[in-house]
Every structure is written in structure tokens, then in C-alpha cells.
Amino acid sequence: MTNDDLIQIERLLRDCIDKYNPVQEKRFSEINAKYPGRKFYKEQFAIDLKLYRRQYIAATNKVGEKEVWINCFCDKDEAYWKTGIVEVLDGGNCYFNLKVNLTKGEYYELMVNGVA
Questions:
Q1: Is 62 helix (H, G, I), strand (E, B) or coil?
Q2: CA 114 to CA 57: how far, in whole Å?
Q3: In contact, 105 and 67? CB cutoff 8 Å
Q4: Less CB within 10 Å around the terminal CB: N or C of the chain?
Q5: Is residue 69 predicted with pLDDT exceeding 90?
Q6: Average pLDDT rounded to a whole number, residues 79-89
Q7: CB neighbours (10 Å) of residue 96?
Q8: Model pLDDT, residue 116
Q9: CB-based contact 101:66 (threshold 8 Å)
Q10: C-alpha 10: how far from chain center
Q11: How many other C-beta atoms are found inside a 10 Å radius of the C-beta of residue 93?
């Protein structure tokens, strides 16, 4: 990957999250209104990219386009994520991933983990 690729990846990631967050903020408001006695936090719904580490797996697809799988997580552990893919069950929006097609300048398949 080139530096230009990394810049494009970050732009596409931001675009995706900028589209995702308003929907989640609305969901947060609706749930807060429905369950006033429970304590929910906006951070459980919306994603602040400044808080996430990233892993990138780049590949060329069958038609020659450059694609990247982006794995994002808010885990602070300094050791394991540098040597292997971070995979967890649940964990809420602390763990999410998506794919980007750098050739087309598109993102797709955003998957945010659920909460157990």
C-alpha cells in the first residue's frame, strides 16, 4: 500500500462512519426515551474514530481492483494486535470492520459487533 492508499482508506472510513453515526445517535435517543430508568451512553452507539486502532488487509480482487479489509477496535492492549488479527465475539461498537474498494473509491460491508 502507498501513502496515497492510506489517505484514501482513511477518507472512505470517515465517510462510512459519518453516514453510520447519525443513525446510531437517533437510535440512542429513541432507546433513552423508551427506557428512561436505564443508563445508556452515546459512546455505546456512535463511533469516534480517534479512539480506534486499525488493521488493514489489502488484496487485488478477481477483476484487478485494489480492495482493503479494515478491522477497527478500541482495545488498548499493545501486544497482540500487532502480530495477529483481532477477532472477538460481541463487544459492541468497540469492534467493527468494513471493506473498501480503492479502485472504485467505495466502502461496503460495514459490520459492527453486537452486545451480549
A1: coil
A2: 23
A3: no
A4: C
A5: yes
A6: 81
A7: 21
A8: 58
A9: yes
A10: 11
A11: 21
User: Of how many residues is the chain composed?
Assistant: 116
8 A C-beta contact, residue 97 and residue 4:
no
For the chain, the 3-state helix, strand and coil shares in percent, each to the nearest 5, are: 40, 25, 35
Backbone angles phi and psi of 35, in degrees to 5: -125, 70
Q: In what order do the strands lie in the sheet with 66-73?
A: 53-60, 66-73, 95-101, 106-112
Whole-number pLDDT of residue 78: 66
Q: CB-side exposure of 2: number of CA atoms within 13 Å?
A: 5
- H-only helix segments in 1-116: 3-34
Q: In the structure, what pLDDT confidence band is assigned to residue 42 with cuts at 50, 70 and 90?
A: confident
- Looking at residue 77, the DSSP 8-state letter turns out to be -
